[in-house]
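User: Before I run my own analysis I want an independent prediction to cross-check against. Here's the chain; please return only the structure tokens and, at the end, one sentence I can use as a sanity check.
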Amino acid sequence: MKYSINIKNVTKGFVDKNEIMPSWMISSRNKNIFYAVKNVSLHIKKQEIFGVLGPNGCGKSTIIRMISTLLIPDTGQIKVLGIDALKTPDKIKNLINRVSVEASFFKRLSARENLLYAARLYGIEDKIAIKKFTQILSELNFPKEKINEPMQKFSRGLQQKVSIARGFITNPKIILLDEPTTGLDPKSKIDVQKFLKKLHAKNDLTIVITSHDMNEIEKLCDRIAIMDNGKIIAMGTKDELTKIIMDKEVYELDSSNNQKAKKIVSNIVDASEIIVENKKIRFHTQNITNVAEKIIKELKKNKVQFKNLNKVVPSLEDVFLELTGKTLEDEE
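Assistant: Structure tokens:
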């Protein structure tokens, strides 16, 4: 099997931000080191869309920065298209590009000026660059009339679309997308997701995307790694991951009184396996006879209004809850 990215036993630590200490004083035994990534191994296939799912602060962005050679791992090995990222990082930089949630621009310059500047850094002629980014922005439904406006006037969604255009303008073999749709409105999210799927289908391209958005990862990715506290805790296709909880039943309760309904459910089901989202309560059960009937009986007894109590198909969020005892919303 050929891989675009090979990560083997990689660890990366940082000095605790609350500690004032020069770097030369830090040793591997220092207790003030915070390990963002702990002994992680990943093998990402060529031409696949690979997702890294996990809460903020779990190590997703650190992995992306190490692949893109912006950070050096403390231990382990990273190879990108067979090239050692530690020994020859310059050979990698022309093969990859990165789109980050905190994308930086020259805010007083226009979108057009920012994109031309980025293209020139890679030696791309203006004529070719303009044709390329005009096409990308069009597919992202970026308003044509705003191309010459200063970036500082743009919404978060428009700025991120320019960032994505900048990432793809160099025709990378690998694109690293670090929370690319965080903070975007639903329409902009859909625009970005459609563009990524279309571009991936047309090109010999490997995409790595990090996110804490379950739905986005499910829609886009061929395989998924679930991260928590700097470690990979599970990896596989969506179907492979959901098999982790196949020994449990998943139910969804639609109630107008979530707090009271949750209390009733928690008396019957382990409270650590209950998700409350909007007006719905989602929970796991195992070896509980007639669990639905018991819950309905208690809801009616306590005069808690509810619409439906249905058995549902397990999701990635259910897997994350099962593995960590928490939801992504808990961690944001």
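Sanity check: The longest strand covers residues 3-15.
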